Amino acid sequence: xxxLHELAAAQGKYFGVAADNNEIADAAYAETLGSEFGWMTxxxxxxxxxxxxQQGEFAFDRADEIVAFAEANGxxxxxxxxxxxxxxxxxxxELPADQMQAAVDEHISTVVGRYEDQLDHWDxxxxxxxxxxxxRDSFWLRTLGEDYIADAFHAARAADPDAKLYLNDYNIDxxxxxxxxxxxxxxxxxxxxxxxxxxGLQGHLIVGQIPDTVxxxxxxxxxxxxxxxxxxxxxxxxxxxxxxxxxxQAEDYGxxxxxxxxxxxxxxxxxxxxxxxxxxxxxVFPGQGAALPWDENLQPKPAYQAIRDAL
Length: 311
Ligand code: XIL
Fold this sequence. Notes:
Layout: H1 4-9, E1 14-19, H2 21-24, H3 27-35, E2 39-42, H4 48-51, H5 61-72, E3 76-83, H6 90-93, H7 97-114, E4 119-126, H8 139-144, H9 147-159, E5 164-169, H10 177-191, E6 198-201, E7 204-206, H11 214-222, E8 227-238, H12 243-261, E9 266-271, H13 281-284, E10 288-289, H14 302-310
Active site: 232
Protein name: endo-1,4-beta-xylanase
Family: Belongs to the glycosyl hydrolase 10 (cellulase F) family.
């Protein structure tokens, strides 16, 4: 039986997964983690609060552990993430503009530079728009102004000339006001020579509510010369799960997979963990869950076969 990644690779794409340190320490979980997937994203270990909790005091033990696991299993890596309004220490948030810019430059050159030979993608800027399509009112925007996005891409490119540099967000999987905002932003940044290579559609979706414009949306970004990745896929439901919801979820996973497979520039799909045992959904969306293709006991759900069929 070929793995999900082998099926995707036969079509020139990858199939990946996100993981945290406690998950790679779970031997039963780690077995499938290391074998079924060809790419890995650290779920938390490369965020600013993990890598530079105090100014100038970098901590790479967690990130290194994920990188070592991936390399031991022949997996490529997506770095996640450099500039985000969450999981960034308060010491950063409270800096005045000139010092914040210096801290960003030091952070990006240190973190990206450290993993220059190991990482193939970086989510440089994460979730910079709100759902209305306005730039998110974050400490980044308030302190640095909107150039913080372009500046972060230039800093990342200076630290790693080869990594593919991504914007990444949720609720931009289909065509809507928010993905329109990205479509405009990307055209402006590319015209200004900002080194952006890709757009990450996080893919935090809801069973029965997959936008019907995912393929069209992927295609329009591809037509701008970008690559596209589905970076954090999970498809949640109201708990408890039942056969009807699991069947709909399978159909939904199949549809998203097919949308990526249909566009040459869609380079791959990453699940945000592979089993319900380690999904972030129940802690953030109360009453919802069962969002991944394997259940809490690491048994494949109907969605698993549907993904295989779509690859
Ligand atoms: C989530 C992690 O999975 C959780 O463990 C953490 O507590 C919060 O962040 N969008 C992103 C990811 O870009 O970084 C988030 O990951 C999920 C939403």
